[in-house]
Amino acid sequence: MAKPPLRSQRSYGKIDRDGFIHRSWIKATGLPEHVFDGRPIIGIANTWSELVTCQVHLRELAGFVKRGIWEAGGVPIEFPAMSLPETQMRPTAMLFRNLLAMEVEESIRANPIDGVVLLGGCDKTTPGLLMGAASVDLPAIFVSSGPMLNGKFRGQDIGSGTDVWRFSEEVRAGDMSLADFMAAESGMSRSAGTCNTMGTASTMSAIVEGLGMSLPNNSALPAVDARRRVLAHLSGNRIVQMVKDDVKPSDILTREAFENAILVHAAIGGSTNAVVHLLALAGRVGVPLDLHDFDVIGREVPLLVNLMPSGQYLMEDFCYAGGVPAVLNELGDLLRREAVTAWGKTQGEIAAGGEVWNREVIGTREVPVGPSSGVWVLTGNLCPDGAILKPSAATPELLTHRGKAVVFEDIEDYHARIDDPDLPVDATSILVLKGCGPKGYPGMPEVGNMALPRKLLELGVRDMVRISDARMSGTAYGTVILHVAPESEAGGPLALVQTGDEIAFDGPGRRLDLLVDEAELARRRQAWEAARAAPKYDRGWYRLYIDTVMQADKGVDLDFLVGKSSADVTRESH
Ligand code: FES
Ligand code: MG
């Protein structure tokens, strides 16, 4: 039976006034008549931007994707998508992840394309691109930016983010001079590409491979490695075939794919941010996934990858050691092997081709880099809808702890008082930060790994239990309890904590409790409600976001974006 014509032919194949309009204005971009004969039209959604190094090379990389598309008999058409530079945007790039997802979704749906190549890499661009593409469900493949080269400073490797946090604590403790601190800046980020630690960008690109949404090795190949250009070319080849075979995100993004992503996340000691991104993506494709899946599925896997912040090495080392295919191989019988991928092979087949070249960097399940890590999902009266913690980044002695709260009402309050010599704090205290959730900040910024009080740093204290409704950078570490839901701004019990309250954290038992009696909490709630201020943001994206954003345990997507809509648009534009 003959296949129906492609979606693009509903615009470019029409022999009438509408076809004239669609063709005339696209041919004038430099495309000859004959390419509109029914071959696949492939969009390239490109988050290229000069605002950050993570995506600055993507126009060049798009050129290699185009070669591959032409070679396979398709027509490449590149279009821009919002860039979300993690280190530049205020109040946080996360505020705009869902905006990128909306832009990508509607750009794909509204234009006469048959499939799409997603180009991005910085923390929030990867989930934003995936979420948008998943909600249209046309064939899609991911080509990541690739990590930047290892950072170098005075003969040592230094890692994006992780060493910023470490150095800045050393400066505050008086162990590093400010001049040395500034000198490390240009050695840390010294090529195009995403952060070279296992931060959120590297975590999300590894997860793209774990989900099966890219070719193998998409995650670890350095941004400037010639083989990334080859991978871009091959991805261009592949998307044309995916269109011909009608392989859609919904065919790839199954429950098994998400389970593989969680296994990979645990094995690499991935960023806590992946939790909200995977929950949001699962919501788009309608796969049942909840917070506890991360703890339960991830528990099966020890830490296999020795990368900062949980370990020692950087993404270049991970690439040379075998990258994600090698990790898939080490997962062995835990891997959901039948899961299909954008490559057309199963994850089991990809794993079979993975090999480890450096046992310092990638361990085995028998001799792992560290114990079972992943994320711990906590519940208790302080976080009725959950909170998370990354045990591989925490201090083991603090994973069970009881202490008195030192509360900061918002980030300004924290900055104003943290170094106050009179702050009633000691090494056993628990720092509590409010007002940093999705609605509160807004956008749920990466401030959960609050720096410690200077007076304790000077005494040699390097970690404390910290609790907030914020996220933390994937490059950060510490005994940091994050994503408390509901957030304080939404009236979660976090809003009611006061300095001096006792808090019990039982990591192994997965509990987080505020030891204040019910009657007192009810009294505080009444006072909290009476004192609520009028909303600060009354227009634009901020308002839409605050009015509709869901809590961390639901992935921080906007409530009306959950699910997907058809790629069909029947009405013409003129
Ligand atoms: Fe873009 Fe880290 S700032 S990946
Ligand atoms: Mg970040």
Automatic annotation (TrEMBL):
Name this polypeptide is given: Dihydroxy-acid dehydratase
Assigned keywords, A-Z: Iron, Iron-sulfur, Lyase, Metal-binding
Family stated for the protein in its record: Belongs to the IlvD/Edd family.
Organism of derivation: Phenylobacterium soli
InterPro entries recorded: Dihydro-acid_dehy_C, DiOHA_6PGluconate_deHydtase_CS, ILV_EDD_C, ILV_EDD_N, IlvD/EDD_N, Sugar_Degrad_Dehydratases
UniProt-listed Enzyme Commission number(s): 4.2.1.9
Record domain Dihydroxy-acid/6-phosphogluconate dehydratase C-terminal: where: 360-555
Superkingdom per UniProt: Bacteria
Keyword Lyase: yes
Enzyme type, top EC level: lyase
Entries under Pfam families matching the protein: ILV_EDD_C (PF24877), ILVD_EDD_N (PF00920)
Keyword match Iron: yes
Domain (Dihydroxy-acid/6-phosphogluconate dehydratase N-terminal): residue spans on this chain: 39-349
One of the record's GO molecular function terms: metal ion binding
